[in-house]
Automatic annotation (TrEMBL):
<dbReference type="InterPro" id="IPR000683">
    <property type="entry name" value="Gfo/Idh/MocA-like_OxRdtase_N"/>
</dbReference>
<dbReference type="InterPro" id="IPR050463">
    <property type="entry name" value="Gfo/Idh/MocA_oxidrdct_glycsds"/>
</dbReference>
<dbReference type="InterPro" id="IPR036291">
    <property type="entry name" value="NAD(P)-bd_dom_sf"/>
</dbReference>
<feature type="domain" description="Gfo/Idh/MocA-like oxidoreductase N-terminal">
    <location>
        <begin position="5"/>
        <end position="86"/>
    </location>
</feature>
<protein>
    <recommendedName>
        <fullName>Gfo/Idh/MocA-like oxidoreductase N-terminal domain-containing protein</fullName>
    </recommendedName>
</protein>
<dbReference type="Pfam" id="PF01408">
    <property type="entry name" value="GFO_IDH_MocA"/>
</dbReference>
<dbReference type="GO" id="GO:0000166">
    <property type="term" value="F:nucleotide binding"/>
</dbReference>
<feature type="region of interest" description="Disordered">
    <location>
        <begin position="88"/>
        <end position="114"/>
    </location>
</feature>
Length: 114
């Protein structure tokens, strides 16, 4: 059986990715959107059983083994880092640390340029 997938994003590209994953046998188990309304609308449209606007809810979902991040680069990087920080070298999940809310958990990346 293929791993359960958690998808981050609700864009038009996500509307293509979810059916592609499903057609290849990947069960899409969770969907994250910037707002609860966006997440709910797409989840119902794509027949995804769980939706949220809280990042940690997807990362900790018991049926999610793999994530697909379809977001702008700064947020993609932050979610990817958080995902990888919570898997130790033996591949076992660790408890998530830090804020447990949605977008507020990731302040914008502010890089100074010379």
């Amino acid at each position: 059986m293929l791993p359960g997938v958690g998808v981050f994003g609700t864009s038009l590209t996500t509307r293509v990715i979810i059916p592609l994953l499903q057609s290849q046998g990947f069960p899409v188990k969770a969907l994250w959107g910037r707002t609860p309304e966006e997440a709910e609308e797409l989840a119902k449209e794509m027949d995804v059983p769980f939706y949220t606007n809280r990042i940690d809810d997807v990362l900790l979902h018991q049926d999610v083994d793999l994530v697909c991040i379809n977001l702008p680069p700064p947020l993609t990087r932050q979610i990817a880092v958080k995902t990888l920080e919570n898997v130790n070298t033996s591949g076992q999940e660790q408890k998530l640390k830090g804020p447990q809310n949605g977008m507020d958990a990731f302040p914008p990346n502010r890089t100074k340029t010379p």
